[in-house]
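Sequence, please.
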C-alpha cells in the first residue's frame, strides 16, 4: 500500500509482519506467513491503526497494482460503509 501523504517509518514496531519502504514510500508485508493478499491488506490496515492510530482509506483515486480483480472487490467491499 502506498499512502499519498504520510510515511510509516516505525511500522515495524507493531510486530505484525508489516514494513515501510522508505525509497518507494509504501507499506509491504514480509511474506513470512502464507496469507492471501486480502488478509495482508487487512493486516496492514490493523498495523497502521495499532502503531499510528491512523485509518488508511480507499478512494476513487486508489490505484491497484498487481492485484487480481477478486481481491480488489473484497477490498472495496470491506472499505465501503455498511448499509
Amino acid at each position: 500500500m502506498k499512502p499519498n501523504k504520510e510515511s510509516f517509518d516505525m511500522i515495524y514496531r507493531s510486530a505484525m509482519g508489516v514494513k515501510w519502504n522508505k525509497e518507494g514510500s509504501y507499506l509491504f508485508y514480509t511474506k513470512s506467513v502464507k496469507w492471501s493478499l486480502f488478509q495482508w491488506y487487512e493486516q496492514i490496515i490493523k498495523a497502521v491503526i495499532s502503531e499510528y492510530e491512523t485509518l488508511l482509506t480507499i478512494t476513487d483515486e486508489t490505484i491497484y497494482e498487481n492485484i487480481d480483480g477478486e481481491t480488489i472487490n473484497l477490498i472495496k467491499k470491506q472499505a465501503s460503509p455498511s448499509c
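Helices lie at 37-52, 69-79.
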